[in-house]
Write a structure and sequence with these properties.
Layout: H1 8-40, E1 47-48, E2 63-71, E3 77-81, E4 85-88, E5 93-102, E6 108-117, H2 119-122, E7 125-130, E8 136-138, E9 143-152, E10 162-172
Parallel strand pairs: 1-7, 2-10
Antiparallel strand pairs: 2-4, 3-5, 5-9, 6-8, 6-10, 7-9
Length: about 170
Amino acid sequence: MERKKITKGFWIKIFSAPILVFLFGVFVMPPIYDVLCEITGFNGTTGRVETEKEYSYDENRQVEVSFFASTMGGFPAQFGPKVNSMMVTPGKFYTTSYIAKNNTDETIIGQAIPSVAPTDAALHFKKLECFCFNRQVFKPNEEVEMTLRFVVEPELDKRIEDISLSYNFVKLES
C-alpha cells in the first residue's frame, strides 16, 4: 500500500479550521445570541418599550419584583438597588433606582447587564428607561443614582407572583 504525501494545503486546512471556528464564536455568535435573547426573552433578557403606553390592568393583581445587584470581580464600585423589592400591578409603570459609588481616584467605565427570573417573566418585563441601555462613566469618588422605569405587562402568566431583576455591573475599557 502506497502512503499519500501530506501537502502544504492539508496543513493550512488543519490549522485554519480552529482559527475560523474561534473567530466565528467570538465575532459572529454574540450579536446573533443577543438578537435571539431580545426576541425570545431567553436567558432572562428583558424587552424595551419606547413610550409609556396605556395597558388595561386588574387593580387586584399584584406581583412582587425583587431587585438584586452584583459587580464583576475587580470592578471598584459599590452597586445596589435603592429598594430591595416592590409590589407592582401588571400594566402600570413604576420607577426605582440603583446607586453606584466609584471607590477610586480614577474614572471608571462600566455597563450593567440585566437578567430576569423566572425566564417566562422576561418576555413581559419591559423597560422604558434604564441605566443598562448605555455605558456609565463614574468620576473619581462619585456616587450616582441611576433610574429604572419599567412595566410588567398584564399578559404575564397568572401563576407568576414573584419576579427577580438582577444587574451585574461589568468594567469596560475606556
